[in-house]
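Structure ticket #2291
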Amino acid sequence: MRQYEVTFIVDPVLSGDEIKSTAKTYEDMLKTEGAVIVNINDMGLRQLAYPINKRSSGIYFCTEFQVENGSMISKLELALRRDERIMRFLTVKLDKYGVKYNEDKRNGLIGKVQKPEKKSAKKDSRKPEPKKVVKPAPAPVVVQKEE
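Resolution: structure written out below.
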């Protein structure tokens, strides 16, 4: 089985239902072509690096799927090119490292930053204890005798 990933950007001007139906259209298309869908990631609204069709943002979807051969990829890409709701798309064939990376990312092993534990609010809200002042011992007095 070959594993692919297609990422596409939907026009943000569309209504919420139209955006979901666009993503569902391509999910159904993949299923009818015999693909096994591994993961669908709705990445949401994001800023674009440069304007596309006079838009500065877009709604990203990433679908990871497996197929026996890549013959249906050309049909998928043709449908994506013809759809006016799709601003851009990218189809990538994943190698074993890409598959492993995506799997680890889904399992939470990649991409999460470990934040240091915060002290409890009770300790932070208390006043700091005053420092104890230690007075030095008095210096010994030396008396010289006159001879």
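Closing remark: The CA atoms of residues 103 and 109 lie 9 Å apart.
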